[in-house]
Amino acid sequence: MWEHPRVSTDRPVRITDVAEAAGVSIATVSRVLNGSSTVDPVLAERVRSAALATRYVPNSNGRALRRQRADVWAVIVSDVKNPFFTSLVTAVEHVAVRSGHSVMLCNTDEHLDRERGYLDAAIAQRMSGVVVSVTSEDHSDLTPLLAAGIPTVVVDRRVHDFAGDSILLDNEKAGRIAVEHLLALGHRDIMCLAGPSGVSTTEDRLDGMRHALADADIPLESERMVRTDLQMADAEAAVRAAVQGPRRPDAVVAMNGPLTAGAYRGIQQSGLRVPEEISLVGVDDDTWTQMVHPAVTLVAQPVEEMGTLAAERLNARAADEHIAPVHLLLEPELIVRGTTAPRR
């Protein structure tokens, strides 16, 4: 059975100690600790175990100097209060730690000027990579990052002229399966609660909803398509006004996590019973959606997978900057719980 040699504790542990402990070359240790995927998995695990056993701490300053890059990734998101993005950042960070990187979290709060400032900071500080969910499909500009040679992965939202790596949800399918579920239950008067225009996730989910309704020969009436800011309070007010109006919808589809929370609260405040009097389908499997009664029927995104794939892509591009870009569409999942029922 292979065992780690003991290393003297009267001096800092060096990469040569890790190589000796793992029984591999210094080059192999370097590749593993830099996140390379070309090392045999058995050897890679042996190197990681040896690094832990010897308590090896990479010299990030020296490594950054050799690469002329800081061992830092920026993760730029549009709303840090949204649990979707906190889960995304957590997934990225798990990969970052394993590959010797730190993560700087940047919250644009849906402001283009903030986004531009964070992009400029990533370039000025020569960061090793950027994962970004853009503020605007049409107006966000990632070309300075690419011009600076900084590996960049777009997640969650498209950006108009970006040809690099992207890890997105199949948002058209997400909107479609939400509405198809309600149609199968007999609902025909469906309110769509969406975010502002110019956000690709919103527009694609709306397209999916429209397609599902069109297939059922049901038009999406303008009064049933309600846009708000992507904030819970605005969503709550919009839904409360709709369900207390003269023609109450049969069901509500909310297009993201905060809108789902606002829709749930708005229906609750109106005094309507869910799902006896109105059904609700949301998006994003946030913790609260399983804790309330009734629990929320929703379309879940594989957010941990999205963050992990994005971070692994940064590592892959750092190892070989010439690899072809990938454009992945992840599958949404309909989770049926207690807020939907057949129309009465």
UniProtKB/TrEMBL annotation:
SUPFAM superfamilies: lambda repressor-like DNA-binding domains, Periplasmic binding protein-like I. It holds the Pfam family Peripla_BP_3. This is Transcriptional regulator, LacI family. Residues 13-67 form the HTH lacI-type domain. Gene3D superfamilies: 3.40.50.2300, lambda repressor-like DNA-binding domains. GO terms for molecular function: DNA-binding transcription factor activity; transcription cis-regulatory region binding. It comes from Ruania alba. InterPro entries: HTH_LacI, LacI/GalR-like_sensor, Lambda_DNA-bd_dom_sf, Peripla_BP_I. It comes from the Bacteria. PROSITE patterns: HTH_LACI_1 (PS00356), HTH_LACI_2 (PS50932).
